[in-house]
Amino acid sequence: MEEEKIICPLIDGLISPADCMENQDLREESIPEKFKKKENWKEICENCKYQEY
Question: Where are the alpha helices (DSSP H) in 4-40?
Fold first, then answer.
């Protein structure tokens, strides 16, 4: 069975829901750099439709 994926607006690509939830729970310095490339990455994440996923 293939794992479900969601589109992350931080990387404009597919990630697992688990990765999404981990990024929401981690301290900023622990979030992988690939998710912090956009200038307003934190705001994008906080306003993402998957924030309540």
Answer: 17-25
pTM value is: 0.84
Measured at the CA of 19, the angle between CA 34 and CA 1, to 5 degrees, comes to 125
Cβ pair 9, 40 in contact under 8 A: no
Label residue 12 left, alpha or beta by phi (over 0 means left) and psi (-120 to 50 means alpha): left
Q: Please, are residues 8 and 24 in contact by the beta-carbon 8 Å criterion?
A: no
pLDDT digits (tens, 9 = 90+) for 4-32: 999 999 999 999 999 999 999 999 999 99
